[in-house]
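FORM 7B - TANDEM STRUCTURE REPORT

SECTION 1: FIRST PROTEIN
SEQUENCE AND TOKENS:
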Amino acid sequence: MPISRSDLPSYLDLMLPTLRAVVALGGSAQGKEITTQVLDEIDRIDWARSYAKLGGALESPRRGLYILTPLGKEILNLEATAALERLRVLDRAVKAARAQNRQTVPESEDPVEDEAGEDTAWRDVLLNRLHRLSPEGFEEFVMYLLRSFGLELTRVGGTGDQGIDGIGTAPISPVLTSRVAVQVKRHDPTSSISREVVALFQRDAAAAGAERAVLVTLGRFSEPAVASR
């Protein structure tokens, strides 16, 4: 029996699974990762991502990359029926706003660079803000940051783990990729990562089949650790 359009789930039906997919992928994800995570079935997933973004449940800092917002997390913490109703309210608000202004909403805006000077105080501010994140929050931020550079990652670790936190591929040319393993350590900015820690992670990465090991920390690397790269 052929499937008609009415038999398919609407984009609204797919919004909640879309938010859950971003959570499962570590709080941020590339568009195609979301599609794979949710049952790569129909193009209404794109509508779900779009309306979730327009409603404020997802953000898209650049084309194809999505981040779960506080509103998205709030919706996910609701019971399924309540979450769906909240998404229906969000959907109606988005449609009402679009009907009112009838303007195309851009998918993303390029950030405006500050060229007033070369003040580097922002670095200290950024480090302090990152250090105030929870270990899980910092790990999610790092996954998002690496994805923004084109890496496709699956989150495999958890807070407090000593092994691999993410594994996937990194582009090394328009046609080639390299398998990478990622470890995230939210150390104090004054602390130092030892050579032993780096060597252990390199062994763990190699055992997982990764060709490259990416260790991200708010601390510093000791001279022996840098030399062992």
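SECTION 2: SECOND PROTEIN
SEQUENCE AND TOKENS:
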Amino acid sequence: MANRSHVYVTDKLATKAKNKRGQFRGISEWGWDIPISHLLLVANKPRRVLSATWKEHEIGIVGESKGAVERLLRFIELLGAGKVKNQSDWDEAVDETQKFFAKKKSQGKWFVLEAGEIFDMSGNSLVKECDAALKAIAAMVKKVDKALAGGEKPWLTKLRKNWEKELGLYWSDILYYEP
């Protein structure tokens, strides 16, 4: 079984005072890594929260959903403006991405990244790995925003050749783990 990164959407987060959270709806899962799409979905005001899957650890990452999907779609559009590997697969993945996020059940106030399984593979502290992921999110946003502004051409060329592994364009409301 692959260790996975999971993304969910919700309208209500638990707080320390009120430990009841809203229902999590599945968005995506990806094996053995945290793909670019997962990082971008939680990139708006990301912060560490108590995990819904590793309940005793504050290793979940939540980000406001407002603008997140739009940034992801703009980035995908930018990638598609160049020559991508396996064009027909790319076209299908882009179409599925647009359709998935147009659905009401894919929308909510927050995206939640649960990557404890990925963090655990390092053998390091889960909290330190989560903090490193927060830094990776900030770095990815900076890189993507620079690309959207016309920069990062060598990275975009490389990513167009390896998008299937790097982007994580897999969407489903049924994930292996449902908190």
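SECTION 3: OBSERVATIONS ON SECOND PROTEIN
The chain has one domain: 4-166.
The mean pLDDT is 93.

SECTION 4: SIGNATURE
Preparer initials: ____
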